[in-house]
Amino acid sequence: MKGLILTLALTALPVVSAQAGGSQGGSMSMQMNMDMHAQMQPVMEDLRRLSGTAFDRAFFSMMIPHHQSAIDMSRAALPRLRDPLVRAWAQSIIDDQQKEITEMQTELRRLGGVDTARQNRMRQAMSGMTPMMTRMMAQSQSPDRVFLEMMVPHHGSANDMANIALQNGQTDHVLSLAQRIIMTQTDEMHDFRDWLRTHPQ
Fold this sequence. Notes:
Layout: H1 2-10, H2 24-48, H3 52-77, H4 84-111, H5 116-126, H6 129-139, H7 143-168, H8 172-198
Helix pairs in contact: 1-7, 1-8, 2-5, 2-7, 3-4, 3-5, 3-6, 3-7, 4-8, 6-7, 7-8
């Protein structure tokens, strides 16, 4: 199973739609993609060094603000989204990731509590996403495109973290959540890219 999930995760690396190239929105999305990659690399390297209970606590503690960022982005986007399908995707992100946050909070209580330092570090890394998306939407003729272009790399970074969990995680709860994140968000990224390809600006 790990080999299958790792293979799927490799197809989910953050990519901004090629159709965005040349537009102001596409340029800003590309910059956000690069900024996220740069911010996440030291966080990922720190996570890779952990094992055992320390890893499990760190993974849940970090994934909670990462999920919360996706929820915040989706909630901010919903009033501006025009396509019913994109609106449904945003609502699904809110519903699914809120459920997973609740699960992770329960597991953290069992593991001894939140790794506060690492959670705050992830929260800081994610802090610019919603304000940036909101500004881009205000400047774009296609807020749906902005939302999906930003959600693709956001999902990609969650998959990167989940991939590390498949290698370093010790408990069934960590491995199960990591597999679910990769499967769900890989499927969503595929759908988002398909929409972007079939809805040129």
